[in-house]
Amino acid sequence: MLYSVQMQGNPGYLHVVIEHQSKPDKKMAFRMMRYSIAAMHRHLEADHDKLPLVVPILFYQGEATPYPLSMCWFDMFYSPELARRVYNSPFPLVDITITPDDEIMQHRRIAILELLQKHIRQRDLMLLLEQLVTLIDEGYTSGSQLVAMQKLYAATRSY
């Protein structure tokens, strides 16, 4: 059920998801979270800019009473407290556009990927050649990274 409501003076949507269950399900909390995310996804796909508040409700009429399992999806993790910290915080961001190349060069194995991604729109990747050779000489690249670099270089030459 989708309701159009005022939330703290702003227009919004309240989406209520009701699941009927006659037996306890160890994965129910996660299933309810999946339903909630799916409802949010459909809302965004309908060209809305803000997410609706989705309230998943389990309507339980089973023999085991009261409902014997947790309805908190965090409890499904080996470390619920760590999961709470990860999923109740902004996601980590690595913005290489503001990271100096000298700092990127210290990142060892990931440095080549970061440099190439940072400068991907640069017309002449030959300007990175000295840095790339340094990383290769220091042994921070694998064979698959070199093949990927070769493909990227070949693709940029066709522009």
TrEMBL record:
It comes from the Bacteria. InterPro entries: Rpn/YhgA-like_nuclease, RpnA, Transposase_31. GO terms for biological process: DNA recombination. It holds the Pfam family Transposase_31. One of its GO terms (molecular function) is double-stranded DNA endonuclease activity. Residues 1-145 form the Transposase (putative) YhgA-like domain. Belongs to the Rpn/YhgA-like nuclease family. This is Transposase YhgA family protein. It comes from Escherichia coli.
